[in-house]
Amino acid sequence: MEVTGGSCQLGLWHVHVWWSGDMIHRVRFAPTGIPGPVPAPIRKYCAGHMVDLSEMDTIACEGETVSARIYRAVRDVPYGSTATYGQIAALVGTSPRAVGRAMAHNPTPLVVPCHRIVAADGIGGFSPALEIKELLLLLEQKGKKRAGK
Length: 149
Known about the structure:
Blueprint: E1 4-10, E2 13-20, E3 23-30, H1 40-46, E4 57-58, H2 66-75, E5 83-84, H3 85-92, H4 96-104, E6 117-118, H5 130-146
């Protein structure tokens, strides 16, 4: 199946998405956009609507690697909520450092909402810029309020 790519705006950033059918292959943040379509749920999410992206398929969760197990656990963190690296590690049976490494290499952020995973004593990190993680967490808080949740 052919992979399609496109981008949509998220604040001052653009979200690049590569996908085929129902499978999301890659998501990246960039200062500039690329032409092409983006799946409707991701467009709606980036526009601030309360959307459950955990129903989308992602290559990140395939298989039984430690990273795939971490990504599946992260997908269970609800919209507008957070969990710590340690909490996810305890669920999966690994270390917080392994969770951090998996989050840093997440091929499909948003679909695997790594922005919802925070340090025990603060927000933690995010690539390519911490401001994106802050924006996503704020966007979800506002989305929940708008939806009356």
